[in-house]
Amino acid sequence: LVRSGKPSGTAAVVATLDEINRTMPGTGPRIDPPVTGRHGDRFSCFGDYSVSLFKNIKLHGSPPARSLYDMAAVAIVRNAAWATPRSIPAPILKDGKWSERPDNPRKIVLWENFDRAAIMTDFHNRMNHPQLTESRSPAS
Questions:
Q1: pTM (2 decimals)?
Q2: What is the rounded CA–CA span in Å between residue 83 and residue 115?
Q3: What is the pLDDT of residues 25-35, one digit of tens each?
């Protein structure tokens, strides 16, 4: 489980509009033919697509930024040292809200204290030096 909306959760892994505009254009593997993005433009690399996404989404805070929830969640699969796991009693979802159940014997792992600097450095390194994997034939 990752938690959003808390300074120690995935919400802490943010990218600012300025950061995306400065670091992402032209990055990532190139494809041909280009694909059509969410807002109608065509893109040959993820970096250019991310610039378009950030120009067309609601940003929060000062400076304007967006949390990279999915990327933060996947980052701990790549390197578990980039966040801290903590076992907690499993909460329950009631009427669209999570309620804590301190006496619940069933436990889940909550990931927190995400290392934004390490996650973003790794992301930018991978976008600047993409390495594609070889295609494999399906097992017979």
A1: 0.83
A2: 6
A3: 999 999 999 99
